[in-house]
Amino acid sequence: MTELAEQTFEGKLLPRHLKMLRDMDSGRIELRYWKFEPILLFLIPFMSVWSGMSIFGCYVMPFLQHDTHPMNYMPLFFGIPFLVVSIFIWYGILLMLFGTRRLVLEHGGGSYSAKLWGIGRTKRFELRPDTEITDSRLEKKPNIQFHMPIANNPFVRKIRIKNGYRSEIVCAFWNDDSIEFALSLLKRRSHHGSQRI
Hints:
CATH topology of the largest domain: PH-domain like
Order of helices and strands: EEEEEHHHEEEEEEH
Distance between the termini: 16 Å
Helix content: 25-40%
CATH class of the largest domain: Mainly Beta
Strand order of the largest sheet: 1-4-5-6-7-8
Radius of gyration: 22 Å
Strand content: 25-35%
CATH architecture of the largest domain: Roll
Number of helices: 4
């Protein structure tokens, strides 16, 4: 695959946070997204203090005090939720810094993956003329619920690809320009079906 040299593709300006690779023989197109998220300036110091203090207090302190105090195992169990939440948030932070968010379009379908050093999920989808491709910004907003998943969260813009009862969410947390570019490309591929564009 070769990286797109020009800054436009089919008359559309390629957003600066996207890198585009295209295989002219097979028609395969790959979009790679990376953008430094300003929220990291808050998350990294906050999580360093929060997870550091939680883990130190729940797992390190009891072992440091076991010579002078009887060993108390309660903090070890109490710290499990903090440890699990810390792992997930640090995974998200590292994914935003070093991960790969990739949308791949091939004839008749494609895939979307968000991975950190090969760890993550790949979603596969079909693209047919009757495939529904929608921008979450235009969807009816659901009632906001605590811990709402990304699929229904009205604050996270993403693209929904629906074939019958099966629905996949792609490009969540991409910036607006990149989502609009990917949306246009997906709709064009869906309209043309298996034809090469």
